[in-house]
Amino acid sequence: EVQLVESGGGLVQPGGSLRLSCAASGFTFSSNWMSWVRQAPGKGLEWVASIQPDGNEKKYVDFVRGRFTISRDNAKSSLYLQMDSLRVEDTAVYYCARATVGTTWDIWGQGTMVTVSS
Amino acid sequence: DIQLTQSPSFLSASVGDRATITCRASQGISNYLAWYQQKPGKAPKLLIYTASTLQSGVPPRFSGSGSGTEFTLTISSLQPEDFATYYCQHRHSYPITFGQGTRLEIK
What we know:
The complex is a heterodimer. By secondary structure, chain A is mostly beta strands. The radius of gyration of chain A is 13 Å and the shape is globular. In chain A, strands 2, 4, 5, 6, 9, 10 and 11 form a seven-stranded mixed β-sheet that branches. Chain A is built from no helices and eleven strands. Chain B is an all-beta fold. Chain B contains no helices and ten strands. Chain B has strands at about 5, 10-15, 20-25, 35-40, 45-50, 55, 60-65, 70-75, 85-90, 100-105. In chain B, the strands form two sheets. Chain B has a six-stranded mixed β-sheet, with no helix packed on it. In chain B, strands 1-3-8-7 form a four-stranded antiparallel β-sheet, with no helix packed on it. Classes of the chains: A mainly beta, B mainly beta. The interface of A and B includes residues 61, 62, 100 and 104 of A.
C-alpha cells in the first residue's frame, strides 16, 4: 500500500523550532518530487515547500523562506521539514504529499498538527 | 504570484443535482490546474489534473474543463459522499497556490 505518515508535530513557543518527518512506503520514494502543504485551522490549503528527487533543488513559499528547510533521505524513504523561528501564524496541520505530473499531489499523509503558542 | 478565485465559495445542493464550481486564474496558466476534494479532518484527495484528466479511481461523474484563465469542475449527479470542500490548485509556476475553496453542502 502506498502510504505517507507524518510525525513530529506538537506545541511550541513562538521563536522555537520543530522538525517534522514523513515516512513513505509502497513506492519508489527516490523517484518523486515531494512537498509539504499546510492548512491553518478552519482555513484553506497552502503550499509550503517542495524538493527534487535527488534533493538538490528546493522551492519555498516566501513566508517560510529562510526559516524552514525541506530535506529528504532517500535511503530511509523519508521527508523532513525543519521549522525554525516559528510564528503564531505557522499554526496548522502540515501534510506531506507526493508529486506526480508536475506539482500535482496524488498521495497525501494524514497530517501532523503544529501549534505555535505561548 | 498567480491568484486563483473560486466561485461560489458556498454551494447548497441536493442528491442527484448537477454541481458546477469555477476557478479563475489571475493570469493564463495553460492547463496546469488540478482539483481536490477534502472532507473534514481528512487529507485532500486528487480528483482531476491537467485541467481535465480524471485521477485513477475517481468516479466518472466528476469532470474538469478549461484552459488559460477559466476552469470548471462539474459533478454530474451528486451523491451523498460528494458533500465536501473542493479546491483548485495551479502548477504553472512557483509559488504554487490554491483557490480559497468551495464548500458543497446538502440542501
